[in-house]
Amino acid sequence: MNLPRFIKAKLNETNARKAGMFTTEDKGKLVTRGASLCLYVARAASQGRDLYLNVEKFLERPGEGTKAYHHRQPRVALQESSPQNNFRRIIAALVPVGEFFNHTVNYCPAHECTVDLRLIVAVLNSKLADWYFRLGSTNAHVSHYQLYNLPFPAFTNSGDAKLIKSALAPLLAGQPSKAFEIVKAELLAGTFSLAAVSILTGAVDRIIALETERGVMSRTDRSALDPAAQPYQDLIDGVLFATAGLTPQESAALEARLKTML
Prior knowledge:
By secondary structure, this protein is α+β, with helices and mostly antiparallel strands. It is built from 11 helices and 6 strands. It has one domain (7-261): Adenine-n6-DNA-methyltransferase TaqI, Chain A, domain 2 (Alpha-Beta Complex).
């Protein structure tokens, strides 16, 4: 299974500036740029000048079926470019409705997806995806074709209700490692049911809540998740390693290799 289609944001800064689409802070909507995107959430941009969009002017001509109106959809957004020595090559955030992106953002809107957006952001922010992406990347761009080459599990829409409940209980109790142990046997057997989906989406929800609470921070601090959120990321990585058929030893070797790629 492949990731859904990603789209380059419509708002080109050069063209928009010539067309007079930017305005002042008190009259416009803050534009979400690539520098705003962090793991799982969008924040105040880490560099560059803030841009404020005259939304009415921006939406004057495009029809409602165009990507100019994708702001009405929740989206997974990622930085269009990141240096090869960056702490991560793929940096994806789940962005709510009402936000406008400039051209340094690629995104996937909810209405074009057949899977939960939280599953997409979980896969993109995983160690497995970052390792796989680095294998074929030769420049700073995060190109669409490279995203489509990433492994994406074919999760099913069925599952044992008791297993789902038993997996979610420790997750909701703040014990993500126990949630993984409950579904590990199923994953290693090649079955990716709603139990796996439930703990992945639940882990993403928890990470987003914890990251949102962090507020303003330095550029250095943005490169790592909150310590309280990291165990949930470890859960995500463990689930996706298992879906790829990796043993614990192979997973550890991949993580070690990934560190040498930075």
